[in-house]
Amino acid sequence: MSPLVLLIRRYAALTEQEATLIAAEFEPVDFRKDDYLLRAGRVCEYYFFVERGGCRIFHEVGEREITGWLAFEGNLFTELQSFKSGRPSRFSIQALEDMRVWRLPRPAHFRLFQAVPGWQAVVREVWEEAFLRLVDGILAFQTETAEQRYRKLAGVAQRVPLKHLASFLGITPTSLSRLRAKK
Q: Residues 126-154: what's their mean pLDDT?
């Protein structure tokens, strides 16, 4: 069973047939390191499932790029505001390494809402997890040191360039270099 089907079935009590029907609407796409899955100013037209690799979701403030989210293997995500509204995104999504993603076009997503009610449960579970991750991140910024937040990223820290990881942690690259040297 594919990782995408396993993920879909983890989130909702779907039959194998329903999960396979959902997965069949996704299309595989390969991205090279530094390619954009989405550029700010464009409408987000897809849900993405990361089979291999990782990416960052960021926005620009003046000359600075602020990394707000990281997605790696097994993540199902989209830039929700743009995807739902059909308005241009404020965010960009960029591959941090070579990636294989499966993407679900907006029209197929809305078709699946009607054809397979379990798809709504999958999406709800994904966004509940994302919300909880966001709350944890906010609390971490309020109650933990940069070193504590960095240690929580041990599994992916080596896969994210220093400047993007520092931005995600809300510190300077120099401060992050000092944290890494503390090992």
A: 86
